[in-house]
Amino acid sequence: MIVFIKLILAHLIGDFILQPNAWVADKEKKKQQSIYLYLHAAVHGIIAWILIGNAMFAGFALLLIVVHGFIDYVKLYFQKSKNKRTWFIIDQIAHIVSLAIIALLYENKGLEFQEFSNGFWVVITAVVFVSKPCSIIIKTIISIWTPENKNTTDDSLANAGNFIGILERLLILCFILTHHFEAIGFLLAAKSIFRFGDLKEAKDRKLTEYVLIGSLLSFGIAICIGLLTELVLQSF
Q1: What is the pTM of this model?
Q2: Are residues 94 and 151 in the same domain?
Q3: Cβ–Cβ contacts within 10 Å for residue 90, how many?
């Protein structure tokens, strides 16, 4: 189990945190001719090898690099502007399945993992997921409803909405892990009060619905991750 969790953490770091937008744009433009396609895959293998922390994982790290690169190539080949959201989901599912298979193959080598810090890796993976990766996932999911006349006034802080979303998900995760579920309701109520005035003044129903979907999705994912993290921690 802990091997799979570490591989998930490596995937989150490599796919969402250490992959600049410039790499993504270059890959979509040049596809298999982009050097960043291979560099991106190599980063995944290296991070996974570092997190596993065992020289015996070298061969599996190489396998991960090849598999990840192939999955990304397939996505780039079939992905079009109209089906980006669909291929994003397919791509992520394929990566998770491949990581599960690699973890099973590696653990069948007969190695035993008795790390007292298993809970640490679970919590760190959850924290990383609810940060930037979750923001990208939510943005991709609701991209189909993005209002054309979305309000982008100059009096708003740069990327404020993104950082607010990350902070609220981190707080929800902390509330669940510390068993303060009532605080989640307080946080939701507080955000609703602060956002109500802005949305009311905007007088844009589509923008209101867009923000509401994003907020509820953010809260829902954070709650699910928090409960799943608590469940996994209890299994150790």
Answers
A1: 0.86
A2: no
A3: 16
160 and 204 assigned to the same domain:
yes
On whether the CB atoms of residues 169 and 131 are closer than 8 A, the answer is yes
pLDDT tens, residue by residue, 26-73: 999 999 999 999 999 999 999 999 999 999 999 999 999 999 999 999
Q: What is the pLDDT of residue 197?
A: 62
**Of the candidates 221, 220, 197, 219, the residue with the CA atom closest to the CA atom of residue 208:** 197
**Number of domains making up the chain:** 2
The pLDDT tens digits of the residues spanning 113-130 come to 444 467 899 999 999 999
**Residues 225, 130: contact at Cβ < 8 Å?**
yes
The reply to whether 230 and 182 lie within a common domain is: yes
Token reading at 34: 């982009």
Determine the structural domain holding residue 151 and report its residue range.
Answer: 141-235
Same domain, residue pair 105 and 179: no
200 falls within a domain: yes
Where b means 16+ CB within 10 Å and e means fewer, 188-225 reads: eeebeeeeeeebeebeeeebbebbeebbebbbebbbeb
- Indicate whether 84 and 145 sit together in one domain: no
pLDDT tens per residue, range 175-192? 999 999 999 998 888 887
Whether 123 maps to a domain, the answer reads: no
